[in-house]
Structures are given as C-alpha cells and as structure tokens.
Amino acid sequence: MEAARRDRIGGGNQDESNCMLPNRFVPRYRLILQYDIRQEMYEPYYEYVIKEFVPALQSMGLQMVGVWHTTYGSYPTRQVEFVTENLETLTDVLHSDRWQALENRLLAFTQHYRRKTVRYRSGFQF
Predict the structure, then answer these.
(1) Which among 40, 59, 73, 84 has most CB atoms closer than 10 A?
(2) How many CB atoms lie under 10 A from the CB of residue 89?
(3) Segment 97-112, tens digit of pLDDT
(4) pTM of this prediction?
C-alpha cells in the first residue's frame, strides 16, 4: 500500500484543538471534501474558496478545521474539512440551494471530487 504525505496548509502539523472554533463549540460531525485542483484553475480556485466558499459555509453553521495538501501517493491533492455540532445543521446545509450552487461552482475548479460526512473524531480522517 502506497503511503501518502499530508501537510496541513497554513501552519504545520497543529492539533485541531488549537483551531479557531467558537467558544463552547463541540464538533460532532465532519464534512470532508477531497479533490484535485485543475492545473489551469489555481488562481481562480483560491480566490473563490477564500472569498466566497469558506465564508458562505461558515455563515451556514459549518466551521473549517483543516485544509490538507497531499504531496505523495495516489490520493487527491486537497482535503478540506468542516465540522458542526449537530446533524440537522449539516443536513440543512447539504440540502440547500445555496450549497448546490457553491458546490457546483467548486466543481468547475476541481476534478476527482469526493464529498463525505462522518462522525467527528479528533485527528485526521479520510
């Protein structure tokens, strides 16, 4: 089995407990997005994710806890993780028209896109 090297973008290998989550926020569910950024779309991808995608998800009740970049192995190069305290919030987000529009626009910048939700546990999750 081929190993992967994953690096947290923007700050080394820090534990999630050091992330900027709201006070008294207890994560229970995680939304994991995995993909490769299209070679010709790096600049518009970053602009979209930083200025629109992440702020929109945060305004909908999801908190970003990690961005990972894979530098070795046959895995998607990017993994972005959001958490929420309850399943209802996550379900509402994923069934909303706003999410559909946000995700569809993200798809224009990416390939090999995968999305999944899991119960939260501390540390890296696939």
Answers:
(1) 84
(2) 15
(3) 999 999 999 999 999 9
(4) 0.79
